[in-house]
Design brief:
The chain has twelve helices and no strands. The chain is an all-alpha fold and 224 residues long. Helix 1 packs across helix 2 and helix 9 crosses helix 10. It is globular and about 50 Å long.
């Protein structure tokens, strides 16, 4: 138990903030965001090295692999729906990915970021495994990309429901594609809460958006 204190602390914080968010309905009490902030605060105040916390919570990192693979289950369960709407789904994912890359270029130009930082922004909407590789290959800063990916995912998880209501997205396919394309696996966790169709389409969007980003990022980087 002592050796796994990081895992216990993480799960306890997540359970606490999940309970508080359900009780209060406050969007800012998102368990992913608050757990990360709370643990960061504890590590700073106690002086415990992050490496020690990471080692003691390593089992959670390991569990990410089977959890990611399990995202194929909702896709399989909605296979008929996927086949029926395949063209529209792929078009939506492609449009969302292109929009995200275009917005990144505008953002980098607007704030006059240097090339390495700008390239680090490009894969912010894909999974960490893909995003950090793209960033490193293009001359970006993988650690910056990792932070951006996490923030993008948490932002999508927090805002998905609100944005779907704001833009009147009621169709499960549309909502799933939008969430998965913009906020990868962390956003998909929210999509799965919304419904089976949302979860399946969001899971598919993670993979397709990652592939499209890997192909287009080298071309888009020339515009930075």
């Amino acid at each position: 138990m002592i050796e796994s204190w990081g895992m216990v602390l993480t799960l306890a914080c997540f359970a606490l903030f999940s309970f508080l968010q359900k009780k209060t309905g406050k969007i800012w009490l998102n368990p992913l965001l608050m757990t990360a902030m709370f643990i960061g605060f504890i590590l700073m105040k106690t002086g415990i090295p992050y490496s020690q916390y990471k080692e003691s919570s390593s089992i959670l990192t390991w569990l990410l692999f089977p959890a990611t693979v399990s995202l194929a289950v909702p896709m399989y369960e909605q296979l008929d729906l996927l086949k029926k709407n395949f063209s529209a789904i792929i078009t939506g994912i492609t449009a969302g990915t292109l929009t995200g890359l275009a917005c990144t270029v505008v953002l980098v130009k607007l704030f006059n970021f240097d090339f390495s930082v700008g390239v680090s922004f490009l894969p912010k909407s894909v999974t960490t495994a893909i995003g950090t590789e793209i960033s490193a290959e293009l001359g970006g800063i993988p650690s910056v990309t990792t932070v951006l990916i996490i923030l993008t995912g948490i932002g999508g998880n927090m805002m998905a429901g609100l944005l779907c209501r704001l833009f009147r997205l009621r169709d499960g396919i549309s909502r799933g594609v939008a969430i998965g394309t913009c906020s990868h696996a962390i956003g998909t966790a929210k999509a799965l809460e919304m419904g089976q169709a949302e979860g399946a389409m969001s899971s598919l969007s993670i993979a397709v958006a990652g592939i499209i980003t890997a192909i287009l990022a080298p071309l888009v980087s020339k515009l930075l």
